[in-house]
Design brief:
Layout: E1 2-5, E2 10-13, E3 21-24, H1 34-39, H2 48-60, E4 65-68, H3 69-72, H4 78-94, E5 97-101, H5 113-120, H6 130-135, E6 140-143, E7 149-152, H7 157-164, H8 168-171, H9 182-189, H10 199-202, H11 205-208, H12 221-232, E8 266-267, E9 278-281, E10 284-295, E11 298-308, E12 321-330, E13 336-340, E14 347-351, H13 352-362, E15 366-372, H14 385-389
Parallel strand pairs: 3-4, 3-5, 5-6, 13-15
Antiparallel strand pairs: 1-2, 1-4, 6-7, 8-11, 9-10, 10-11, 10-15, 11-12, 12-13, 12-14
Protein name: Heterokaryon incompatibility domain-containing protein
Length: about 400
């Protein structure tokens, strides 16, 4: 690990366990890179001010070392870059404290509502990489554009929850991200952006506890690779509960933006059902689902996730929840399907009691299917026959998301 000496502002290498250090991250213009430090020209760059200010602050807090991503990683080395990105979440976790520099915030306190609004509008809260900077460290200290202290994550957790949507228990380190559903964690990143498309996936590796090689230039394939790695170690169906306005679908979401509004989606752990697991293969997702006929060769499938209707009804097999469902269209192969949207709707929320009656009416059980990875079909506009047959039972209820 490469660290900055906070007294000399020079880089030093450490092998094995590093000394105590502060950490900071924020890409701006004219940053000083590792190469600039090698050539001794770092002081001529605008970004050096942030580095030196961070070092002075850490030194004043009796921390002899600091880590700043712009200069502590040699980004010319693809091997080092891959190792650093896969290790970054751990580095944030192990830091004594994190200095969050909000260069576009000029207020000097958070006592008023207007100042809090200004704080919440900082670009720092819209960047992909700063998500782990907020969640991973135990101690995060916020500073404005003049390095005036604004408060800590610990004491501003209610404001931070309002700004980011991240639960207070996560911010206070009472629960880990791994204890949250996949859709909750995706929702944290749904409104964040990165300068490189691939980085939207790479910046989430630590949030999901997975590792994978960096392939800059792969575009949105990086996010699908990320989901593939998540699936290898999770049976959480909320990864399939996403919405998108595009007509052609894949079984996996094209970006974290598809999880907007799904931060309160919960898992349903069946008490008498063993159909929860799935496997991601080259052709798509191998999974067991209950498929109810909807129209023509199209089916609606219930996922093991949704929204509890009553607090004491949780963990029920079908009843007690509003179930998240997706539409699947059968291909020319009997057991192969593609995910589709019907009348612009690709994620439907159905009352669990109603879905159970639909299942019983058509006498269907869970079946093993392959949901193909890609789909070039056009959106379907069809009258849902299952809905027609169940009008006498109950009216289907749906839920929309922002």
């Amino acid at each position: 690990m490469r660290l900055l000496n906070t007294r000399t502002v020079q880089l030093e290498e450490f092998y094995g366990k590093p000394p105590k250090y502060a950490i900071s991250h924020r890409w701006e213009t004219d940053e000083a890179s590792y190469k600039d430090f090698e050539l001794g020209r770092e002081r001529t760059l605008q970004g050096y001010y942030k580095i030196s200010a961070c070092c002075r602050l850490a030194y004043s807090r009796r921390l002899e070392y600091a880590w700043v991503d712009t200069c502590c990683i040699d980004k010319r080395s693809s091997a080092e870059l891959t190792e650093s990105i896969n290790s970054m979440y751990q580095w944030y976790q192990e830091a004594e404290e994190c200095c969050a520099f909000l260069n576009d915030v000029h207020v000097e306190d958070l006592d008023s509502q207007q100042n809090q609004i200004t704080f919440g509008k900082s670009a720092w809260f819209t960047r992909g990489w700063t998500l782990q900077e907020l969640i991973a460290p135990s101690r995060v200290l916020f500073y404005n554009s003049r390095w005036v202290y604004l408060g800590s994550k610990e004491y501003q957790c209610k404001l931070l929850k309002k700004v980011t949507g991240i639960g207070i228990a996560v911010l206070q380190k009472k629960i880990t991200p791994s204890e949250c559903t996949i859709s909750q964690r995706m929702a944290w990143a749904a409104y964040r952006t990165t300068s490189r498309l691939e980085a939207r996936a790479y910046s989430l590796l630590g949030i999901f506890g997975v590792n994978m090689p960096m392939l800059y230039g792969e575009g949105d394939k990086a996010f699908r690779r990320l989901q593939g790695e998540i699936i290898k170690q999770s049976d959480d169906h909320t990864i399939l509960a996403w919405r998108d306005q595009q007509s052609a679908k894949s079984v996996l979401a094209p970006s974290p933006s598809c999880s907007r509004g799904l931060d309160d989606m919960e898992r349903i752990i069946p008490t008498n059902d063993t159909t929860q697991g799935y496997t991601f293969v080259d052709a798509g997702l191998s999974i067991q689902l209950v498929l109810v006929p909807w129209s023509m060769n199209t089916y609606i499938a219930s996922l093991h996730c949704g929204y509890p209707k009553l607090q004491d009804c949780r963990r029920a097999s079908f009843r007690g929840y509003e179930r998240a469902c997706i539409f699947l269209q059968q291909t020319e192969h009997e057991h192969q399907f593609t995910r589709v949207s019907i009348d612009g709707e690709d994620l439907k929320i159905i009352d669990g009691d109603i879905f159970a009656r639909m299942r019983d009416k058509f006498e269907v059980q869970a079946r093993h299917v392959l949901v193909r990875q890609s789909n070039d079909l056009n959106p379907i506009s069809a009258l849902p026959t299952a809905q027609l047959k169940l009008r006498s039972v109950a009216k289907l209820r749906s839920r929309s998301f922002v």
